[in-house]
């Protein structure tokens, strides 16, 4: 079981301006922000997702082929996540839609955050 996932950021203050509204769409809120680290969670979980300056002190870079997928309850949540991400400076990585190569009901969207990290939101719901 995964406890949490972290992505690198070079500017935590800038990152929260993107992630606060985007993650609120799927029920995650900022739980902490200290130093160069930011933690997000839900009411049931303290931390599920974090943004951090790399511990080696080098610049954070996005990994080619790496992405984080968040679960959504319904397709309208996927659509809203995508809309809010783009409205807050994210860039398109794949508009909301069915991805039948994964599953007949796989409905997802992909965006890149302000540091270039690829994030996805997905649902298997038919509605």
TrEMBL record:
This is Glyoxalase. It comes from the Bacteria. CDD domains: VOC_like. The lineage of its organism: Bacteria, Pseudomonadati, Pseudomonadota, Alphaproteobacteria, Sphingomonadales. InterPro entries: Glyas_Bleomycin-R_OHBP_Dase (IPR029068), Glyas_Fos-R_dOase_dom (IPR004360), VOC_core (IPR037523). Gene3D superfamilies: 2,3-Dihydroxybiphenyl 1,2-Dioxygenase, domain 1. Coiled coil: none annotated. Residues 1-124 form the VOC domain. SUPFAM superfamilies: Glyoxalase/Bleomycin resistance protein/Dihydroxybiphenyl dioxygenase (SSF54593).
